[in-house]
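Researcher: Structure prediction, please.
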Amino acid sequence: MGFYERRVLPHIINCACGSKPIMRQREKVVPFARGEVLEIGIGTGLNLPYYDSAKVTRLIGLDPSEKSWELAGERAAALPFDVEFLGLPGEAIPLADNSVDTVVVTFALCTIPDPVAALRGMARVLRPDGELLFCEHGRAPDAGVQRWQDRINGFWASVAGGCNINRDIPALLAAGGFQVGDLQTLYLPGTPRIAGYNYWGRARRAVSA
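Model: Predicted structure follows.
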């Protein structure tokens, strides 16, 4: 990993993912987290202000970028519950089966190299009554936008830390062992349409997962 990926990119991502439309989306899902929580791709901790301290007992944040976690230090220190950081990629979840009540993943499935493997790991660690809270950008419903997403995805990923703009989020969730009970979508205002189609909602582990 070079200087750009280690020192520059985390700051760029922090600014881009901290825009008002994206923060508003985080606010729609994160407050529903409860109990023992695993956040995949915690990054610079942009979700931390939205956790409800009356519901959360412990938060485990998983992210391969230790520099990103350094930027989250003050946000984490202000929380009244324990926060633990694990510097690992999203596919590597070193937790026991059925060990967390909530998994939170926001704007992270786009960058995980094997999102299906990561989702299967999330399903594995969720308790039977646990819940996945998700908010992601992905493949747009309009054919014209899809063509542009497919056309520039390789270049986009090369300059944006591996971010893919054309992933089919509902299909990934299903392949990863989840049944979505609540799914909402829209183009985020003030965001390029190729990167601004947003999916968010809540899902549970599928019976066969």
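Model: The two ends are 35 Å apart (CA to CA).
Researcher: Thanks, that helps.
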